[in-house]
Amino acid sequence: MRAVVTGSGSALPVNCVTNADLADRVDTSDEWIVERTGIRQRHIAGENETTSTLATEAARRALEDAGVDASEIGLIILATATPDFTFPATATQVQHALGCGGGVAFDVQAVCSGFLYALGTADSLLRTGMAKKALVIGAETFSRILDWEDRTTCVLFGDGAGAVVLEARDVADNGPGILATKLHADGAHRELLYVDGGPSTTGQVGKLRMKGREVFRHAVVNLADVLKEVLVQANVEVDMIDWVVPHQANARILDATARKLNLDPSKVIVTVDQHANTSAASVPLALDVARRDGRIKAGDLVMFEAMGGGFTWGAALARM
Ligand code: ACO
Questions:
Q1: CA-to-CA distance for 139 and 118, rounded, in angstroms?
Q2: Which ligand 1 atom is at minimum distance from the Cα of 252?
Q3: CB–CB of 290/90 below 8 Å?
Q4: Residue 16 falls in the annotated catalytic set
């Protein structure tokens, strides 16, 4: 039994904000942002767009792509660090909006690695028979937790959502499905990337704070290590990989990780230029873009990877 990706979908807020637009707000420039990050624009949620509305739209598109009716979904796992409310879980709001009540629905919080955590959890639950069909969603409205006066962070993030339908199937050894996943967490580095508020401390939502240079250093090391672990677990050589769908934090992290692994950079799906860092949404958003433009096809071997606040990090290998 394997968990097979049978559909994907994504959603972006209507409003697109360019680097030049940001340069009107804070002391920055298109040149600095492009050179240091590769980001050219990001989508920012308007008043009526929330994490759950974006997630619902992405989920509907994934269901349509998979040819699955919402009533068939027995499990929804939604990865987010920016839920609509402290509770109930945003996954339950999405479940209600889709009209697929009765199954299991919950959120996972692993910041930028959230989608990898959700995917790994859904894979385990499907393989143990808890459900037959699942929606795994990454959705964020990071614009709501940014300090719009802090140029070192506000230029880096965007809003959006991505979703996949996963189905439990009996497949041949060389057939499709998730082949290996590896997840890690290390709470020792909270001060490098965190939000300075929360229900149990300040009672306020808080704003994102980051020591970018140090996060960068940890990201490259941790990502290269976890990718190697997954390759060993799946008994796969790096040159057998058709595509890497990485968390889209920074073009330079993507380049440095590819170099460390001797990975052909043309196999790396890059959307950070268009979406910026959408945290838990970035991997399923990038996957959906590359499936819809025809790059990622059935039978391809695809590596997913992400690293985020906590620190948390992880990778997964799947055959499409
Ligand atoms: N515009 C213009 N200048 C800026 C800006 C800006 N938006 N932001 C910072 N600067 C200035 C700084 O003030 C500093 O000026 P100084 O030398 O006069 O003090 C100078 O640029 C260099 O700043 P650094 O922080 O050293 O720049 P660096 O090359 O490290 O790039 C960046 C910063 C882009 C944040 C980089 O460290 C990075 O991408 N880190 C990874 C962080 C990340 O992606 N986190 C996301 C969550 S975790 C994850 O997803 C992996």
A1: 12
A2: 39
A3: no
A4: no
- Which CATH number fits the domain 2-169, given the four candidates 3.30.70.3270, 3.40.605.10, 3.20.14.10, 3.40.47.10? 3.40.47.10
Which of 146, 152, 226 gets mutated to test ligand 1 (max ligand atoms within 8 A of its CB)?
A: 152
E strands, 38-158, are 41-43, 75-79, 104-108, 133-141
Residues of the chain with CATH 3.40.47.10: 2-169, 177-319
Nearest C-alpha neighbor of 247 from the set 231, 265, 268, 225: 268
Closest C-alpha residue for ligand 1 atom 31: 36
- Residue listed under structure tokens 């009540």: 101
Q: What would the pLDDT profile of 229-266 be if each residue is shown by its tens digit?
A: 999 999 999 999 999 999 999 999 898 888 888 899 99
Active site residue 112: yes
Q: What are 133-168's pLDDT values in tens digits? A: 999 999 999 999 999 999 999 999 999 999 999 999
CATH number for the segment(s) 177-319: 3.40.47.10
**87 Cα to the center of ligand 1, angstroms:** 33
CA of 212 to the centre of ligand 1 (A): 5
Model confidence band, residue 213 (pLDDT cutoffs 50, 70, 90)? very high
ipTM: 0.93
Query: What's the Rg (C-alpha) of the chain?
Result: 18
Q: Which residues line ligand 1 (CB under 6 A)?
A: 28, 32-33, 36-37, 112, 151-152, 155-156, 193, 210, 212-213, 215-216, 219, 247, 249-250, 277, 307-308
Read off the DSSP letter of residue 296.
Answer: S
